[in-house]
Amino acid sequence: MNRSSQYQTRHRKTLFSYLESLSGKHVTASDIHHHFQQLGISIGMSTIYRHLERMIDEGLVNQYLLDKTDAACFEYVGSHQEDEKTSCFHFKCESCGKLIHLHCDELGLIQDHLLKKHGLDINSLRTVLYGSCTQCMNSSHR
């Protein structure tokens, strides 16, 4: 049993280090699994999900569920989670599927306006704007 505990701790440290290196970026559990496969590190999907769930509970990782058909995205937030909650919006490119983290004061002003003028309290962590990213717009104009 002690060996199993060390095994899980090693995986957690490896996963944590990887997520920390991607601070501000979103990844799926499949992305994580693929990354470790490419490095030759054997870590199962259930282990990845188990550790992600614990990190979510600990406030180290945010989970984003954009819609019913997409996989959940995870983002390392560390101790900065409370700072980001007030102004964190997302943009999803409808062409390539990229999820972009938006920290924009203007969107925060819209959030404040909706609350003050319309009585609507927007959960910015779950607010997603859809459209085309710069790369997809540039490639479609060629």
Give the gist of this structure.
This protein is of the alpha+beta class and 142 residues long. It is 49% helix and 16% strand.
Walk me through what this model shows.
This protein is an alpha+beta fold. The chain has 2 domains: 1-79, Winged helix-like DNA-binding domain superfamily/Winged helix DNA-binding domain (Arc Repressor Mutant, subunit A, Orthogonal Bundle), CATH 1.10.10.10; 86-142, Ferric-uptake regulator, C-terminal dimerisarion domain (Dna Ligase, domain 1, 2-Layer Sandwich). Helix content is 49%, strand content 16%. The strands form 2 sheets. Strands 4-3-5 form a 3-stranded mixed sheet. A two-stranded antiparallel ribbon has the order 1-2. The chain is globular, with a radius of gyration of 18 Å.
Fraction in beta strands = 15-25%
Q: Return the CATH topology of the largest domain.
A: Arc Repressor Mutant, subunit A
Which CATH first-tier class of the largest domain would you pick? Mainly Alpha
- The number of distinct β-strands equals 5
The count of domains is: 2
What structural category characterises the helix and strand content? alpha+beta
Let me know the average pLDDT. Answer: 81
H/E series: HHHEEHEEHEH
Poorly predicted spans: 1-8, 81-86
Question: Cα distance, first to last residue?
Answer: 59 Å
- Spatial strand order of the main sheet: 4-3-5
Shape-level CATH architecture of the largest domain? Orthogonal Bundle
Biggest β-sheet description: 3 strands, mixed
InterPro entries: FUR, Fur_C, WH-like_DNA-bd_sf, WH_DNA-bd_sf
GO molecular function: DNA-binding transcription factor activity; transcription cis-regulatory region binding; zinc ion binding
Binding site for Zn(2+): 93, 96, 133, 136
Family: Belongs to the Fur family.
